[in-house]
Amino acid sequence: MKRIFLPLVLLPVIALFISGCGGSGGSKSSLSGSVTDVAGNYIPGATISIDSREVTKSLMNGTYKVTGLSYGEVNVEASAVIDGKKWTGTRAVDVYADGPTQNMNIVIGPWDELGDVKGAVTDVDNDPLPNARVIAVARYPQDRAVDEASVISKVAVTDRYGRYVIDNLPASITVGGKKEELVYDVIASFAGKSGQPGGFENVTKTATVGADMVTTLNFKLEASDVITPPTPAGWTSEGAIYVISYTLPTSITSRAEVSAYDAIKSCISEKSRKAVAFKNKIARRSPPSGTLIENDVIWYSIWNGQYGIDVPSNLAGFSIYRSQTSNIEVSDHYLLDFIRDPSIVTYTDTSSSLTAGNTYWYGVTSVSTSYLDAYNNFNSDAESDMSYPASVTPLGKLTVQLPPDNAKVNTGSPTFKWVPLNRARSYKVFVYEGYPILDALFTPQGDTERPDHLPAWGESDVVTGSTVTFSDPDFSLVAGHTYYWVVMASDSSDFDQGDAFAISELRSFTR
Fold first, then answer.
1. Residue 208 has what DSSP assignment?
2. DSSP H helical segments within 55-207, as ranges?
3. 20 Ramachandran zone, left/alpha/beta (phi>0; psi -120 to 50)
4. Backbone region of residue 271 per phi and psi (left: phi > 0; alpha: psi in -120 to 50; beta: other values)
5. How many C-beta neighbours within 10 Å does residue 5 have?
6. Cβ neighbours of residue 296 closer than 8 Å, sequence gap 6 or more
7. Of the chain's two ends, which shows fewer C-beta atoms within 10 Å, N or C?
């Protein structure tokens, strides 16, 4: 039997099972996340309330942080007035006892276009299962590729009677002026009763949510006698996971800029586009102030079906490990995070300790619902072997020199210049006819003939030096029009195949 250390991040989760709902302790903790609308746009100035008590507002980049909380279950609500109408969203959150609770992002929508899902979770003998997790994940619209779709995910925790409510779920999403009904996969997952070893098998049901209506879904979970977590085929072979690194400017503060840079990332390559799409589907850490580097770890191909999610019956979630050497192993020394959500497929690492030029190795394990033994201790057999690790070495910050921002250019083939980066092996300039943003399906909007759906855009030749004269036979610069542009650096001479990219600040010029 392999030796597995008790992940420190699991300890607060175990404490919650011991204490039950609403538990509190002497130590105080913090809660942080982001507020977005259905389209994934970050919402600044949203009012954040904890158990109906207003505590703070989201910042210009949509993030929020609440400190001084006792551990236990709380209800977090975000609300804002947009175009004269109240938008709101809620989420049940387990506040950890032994450290900050992060990734708690809240999706808000117009109050009269939201619906609820409620019900109860019991065992087969109809005994309530308190502290079970019920997760609602929006399915992909049927006419869009699996990696292009919006996914809205919300989590509720059952009370002492096994009851739950997932409220304020968007009933529909508008794409290109057309309103489409959302279908949700609702997953009930339980890690076991106090004093009882072994977890329960997950159950997934589907539901539609009517505006201002309540949909009832009840779950009966069977006890599982399988402790070993599911391990996908090829999990320990090269390519099981991959990592893409982006180094961004420090000046990104608004939700529009966040959206713009995600749109820009998505036009690098198909792999990068998928990374952006899946990153926006789950709760993630809010970047610390001044963060430059973002490493995205992706294993999306494992659990996703064609139009929905295919969650194994005894999967509780995933542990993510990071090391600065290739000798990464399953131990608390390398543990980066534990996500108690069987539907996630990617993890975004925006730690302030990430440094350009340093190599980072990542590995992922799956954890079964039987991770608690009879004494509420972590069961070492409930964690899978680590995936084949993947590594990435972030690039430094990319600085442009010419043309100046908001410049007037007198040619259809302007010259762009930048400061060369150490370890960058190729560069490319992208020019957009409009400000690049993500649409409601988390894919760039615009020309539907392009796989990335960006506003019409052109790209320069790939170069190895620090200048390029823009020329794209399919993209002509029109006199009097304002264009937006960036320079991108890749760690590969085959630009699209890079694993680490640096993106300059987004500038504009007028032809």
1. E
2. none
3. left
4. alpha
5. 15
6. 243, 244, 245, 246, 275, 279, 346, 347, 348, 349
7. N
- Rounded CA-CA distance 331/108 in Å is 37
Burial of 388 (0-12, 13-18, 19+ CB in 10 A): middle
pLDDT tens digits for range 9-66? 332 332 222 222 233 344 467 777 778 776 566 788 899 988 878 888 888 767 788 8
Report pTM: 0.73
Class of residue 381 by CB neighbours under 10 A (exposed 0-12, middle 13-18, buried 19+):
middle
What's the whole-number mean pLDDT along residues 129-153? Answer: 65
Cis peptide before 403 (omega within 30 of 0): yes
The alpha carbon dihedral of 68, 71, 72, 76 has a sign of positive
Question: Other CB atoms closer than 10 Å to residue 293's CB: what's the count?
Answer: 26
Q: How far is CA 405 from the centre of its chain?
A: 31
What's the pLDDT at 474?
Answer: 81
User: Pick from 436, 416, 427, 426: which is nearest to 266 by CA?
Assistant: 436
Q: Write the single-letter amino acid at 443.
A: T
User: Nearest Cα to 85, choosing from 63, 109, 115, 106?
Assistant: 109
Q: For residue 254, what are its two tokens?
A: 């608004």
How deeply is 365 buried, as exposed, middle or buried, from its count of CB atoms within 10 A (0-12, 13-18, 19+)? buried
Strand partners, 298: 242, 346
Q: Is 171 left (phi over 0), alpha (psi -120 to 50) or beta?
A: alpha
